[in-house]
Amino acid sequence: MSKRKIDRRGLPLARKVHQAMTDRDVRAAMARKSVSVLPTFLTLGNAICGFGAITFAGRWTGFDQTTSLFAAACLIYLAMVFDALDGSTARRLKQTSEFGAQLDSLCDAISFGAAPALLMLQLAAGFHHRLLWLIAALYVSCTVLRLARYNVESDDTVKDRSFCGLPSPAAAGTVASFPLMVFGLKSLEITADDFMWKGFADWTDWAMARILPPVTLLVACLMVSRVRYPDTFHYMVRGRQNVSYMIKLVFAVAVIFVMPQIAVPLLFGWYAFSTPMRALWRRRTQPPTLPIEETPPEQVHVEGQ
Questions:
Q1: CATH fold of 36-279, please?
Q2: Which residues are CB-contacts of 44 (< 8 A; sequence separation ≥ 6)?
Q3: pTM of the model
Q4: What's the pLDDT at 235?
């Protein structure tokens, strides 16, 4: 008989302890998977909002075009809320995983890629049809490329709290802000008893057909650019606020209070276009750095005797 201690079932005691530790690890892993259900549902809420935005943008709901596009834009912003909550919830519960990151990118491709592109197609229907479809296709392609690059470079983003290229939610918010503006201005024409707003609805439709496609093309290019965008949410909540931040905050509140119909396009447009314009300005104003050249030795002239 072996000298090792044997339990009643004939198994070595060491093997029994190892089996108990293995079962405990399995139960802990199952518990972690059960907690990660909440971030997964939040991510799926992002996809459902994106699909709802596509449904309203396609005018399959029986509402008029202005109301349908307004509802589609609101669902895109609601998808942005779900997109912000799923990541923060997963980090707080310490349930971040590769599965969650890939699922988030797939849902973002629907909500911030396909939905804004279809929204632009419907709102700018008076534009050249083939060129309009090409811009929409480029926007979707740049969104997918932006999300794929973010998955690869996410570690660098966490370190310096900045994004390489315009984030896809900000690009989608810029495009979706125009239906909100159109809905607000048309409602102002109906409710405001002022001669200045008469016939304003027809002018907004004409203007959107010529302004929104170039804006969509610009934000698509900025998504795949190398311009560094700050993590605004992090700086607003946790960062140190300086005088410049307070001035921007007062300006944003003033715009929302004075003219709420155009506040959302102005704020999203400021975030999307001010950063590359500042980078371009610094590049043009700063003097070029010339390479340091070695000073040639002085020539010694020796006169003949």
A1: Four Helix Bundle (Hemerythrin (Met), subunit A) (1.20.120)
A2: 103, 107
A3: 0.77
A4: 58
Cβ pair 219, 166 in contact under 8 A: yes
At 68-125, the pLDDT tens digits run 999 999 999 999 999 989 888 888 888 888 888 889 999 999 999 999 999 999 998 8
Distance in angstroms (rounded) separating the CA atoms of residues 245 and 241: 6
Lowest mean pLDDT among 83-87, 257-261, 287-291: 287-291
Mean pLDDT over residues 116-137, rounded? 91
51 pLDDT tier (thresholds 50, 70, 90): very high
Rounded to whole angstroms, the Cα distance separating 24 from 40 reads: 25
